[in-house]
């Protein structure tokens, strides 16, 4: 899903918020009986390149970031609110980062929150989701700050294809761990779009667009910037394999085409979804 992953209070690894999503992520029903979903996301990013303050691509930190996101979702409706759907989600990250002189792993800070949506038309969905990141992850990979993830999402379905995605922001609190200087963490803003082509077969190819802008972070004692402002723009391609109405697997590769003060995206993504 995303994040600045704090590593022993010294290093950071970054990926684009919600870059793990696939097509139909927000193709949601209304007026349904309660049901559940279990989703496992996986990401591997090879941080061999980075963008400097001038936006020039150069040799990166040579890190390998592996992130798993295990998500449980409960969906329900209210009889007195016809045409509106609700969901509660709990997301548990699993993180591993390796590189020269660096090795950190563990359960990351969990995210939990709600989503609500409606269908302006039979084949479209429009909604809002909001999550809070709780800094209780393992010592090596916790962010050491609270954060709020809020975004608007949409989905449009057509017999020939689909398009969907989200636009949102992450508002971060003060990083305080008792070991390092306190930092006012900068906020971020993101957009994620997926466009697919329906082939009337179990395979559905798609293209992805991911963008994120990061504000600067500042030391609270007035010592200056803890991180510079930056951005990342990544394009990708993949496919959805639908095994049944309740089981689907999504795979994708994505790569940065523009950036500033970030490790370049060079990532493979995998998603397994089960509805029950």
Automatic annotation (TrEMBL):
InterPro entries: FApF (IPR025737)
Protein's name according to its UniProt entry: Transporter
Species name: Novosphingobium pituita
């Amino acid at each position: 899903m995303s994040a600045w992953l704090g590593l022993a209070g010294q290093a950071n690894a970054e990926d684009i918020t919600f870059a793990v999503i696939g097509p139909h992520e927000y193709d949601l029903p209304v007026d349904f009986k309660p049901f559940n979903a279990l989703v496992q996301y996986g990401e591997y990013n090879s941080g061999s390149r980075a963008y400097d303050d001038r936006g020039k691509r150069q040799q990166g930190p040579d890190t390998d970031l592996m992130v798993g996101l295990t998500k449980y979702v409960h969906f329900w409706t209210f009889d007195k609110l016809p045409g509106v759907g609700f969901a509660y989600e709990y997301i548990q990250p699993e993180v591993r980062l390796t590189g020269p002189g660096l090795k950190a792993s563990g359960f990351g800070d969990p995210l939990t929150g709600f989503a609500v949506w409606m269908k302006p038309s039979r084949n479209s969905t429009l909604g809002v989701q909001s999550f809070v990141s709780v800094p209780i992850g393992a010592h090596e990979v916790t962010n050491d700050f609270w954060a709020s993830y809020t975004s608007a999402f949409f989905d449009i379905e057509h017999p020939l294809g689909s398009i969907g995605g989200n636009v949102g922001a992450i508002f971060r609190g003060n990083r305080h761990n008792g070991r390092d200087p306190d930092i006012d963490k900068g906020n971020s803003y993101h957009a994620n779009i997926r466009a697919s082509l329906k082939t009337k077969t179990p395979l559905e190819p798609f293209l992805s667009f991911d963008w994120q802008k990061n504000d600067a972070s500042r030391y609270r004692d007035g010592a200056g910037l803890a991180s510079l402002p930056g951005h990342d723009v990544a394009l990708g391609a993949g496919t959805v394999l639908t095994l049944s109405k309740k089981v689907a697997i999504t795979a994708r590769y994505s790569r940065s085409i523009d950036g500033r003060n970030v490790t370049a995206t060079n990532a493979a993504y995998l998603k397994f979804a089960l509805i029950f």
